[in-house]
Design brief:
Elements lengths: L2 E5 L2 E3 L5 E8 L8 E6 L5 E7 L6 E3 L7 E6 L4 E6 L8 E8 L8 E4 L3 E5 L2
Parallel strand pairs: 2-11
Antiparallel strand pairs: 1-3, 3-8, 4-5, 4-9, 5-6, 7-8, 9-10, 9-11
């Protein structure tokens, strides 16, 4: 079955950096776009970023532009999210998600269980 396992979350100071990873299995990884979605404490889900099947195109929500970088290593079936210049408002559970198609925009059909990122001094 499809399995998505996030890792790399933890406590980081404001202005710091963190890299999240998502290990994918149970499907042909390079046939699908992938996304990151987050949920801050007491808030709803917020789309963060997405990447085309081959990494050729990337997309970001406005608050993340210039600070976050999504990437993937198809040989390793792994998705990444490099987060720089972190702010307290970035505190959230970050979820890795499989998109419906090789291209973003059609939605997501599988989710990981998430990894918690806490940005605090």
């Amino acid at each position: 079955e499809v399995q998505l396992v996030e890792s790399g979350g933890g406590l980081v100071q404001p202005g710091g950096s963190l890299r999240l990873s998502c290990a994918a299995s149970g499907f042909t990884f390079d046939d699908y776009a992938m996304s990151w979605v987050r949920q801050a404490p007491g808030k709803g889900l917020e789309w963060v970023s997405a990447i085309r099947w081959n990494g050729g195109s990337t997309y970001y929500a406005e608050p993340m532009k210039g600070r976050f970088t999504i990437s993937r290593d198809n040989a390793k079936n792994t998705l990444y999210l490099q987060m720089n210049s972190l702010k307290s408002e970035d505190t959230a559970v970050y979820y890795c998600a499989k998109d419906f198609s090789p291209w973003v925009g059609l939605g997501m059909d599988y989710w990981g269980e998430g990894t918690l990122v806490t940005v605090s001094s």
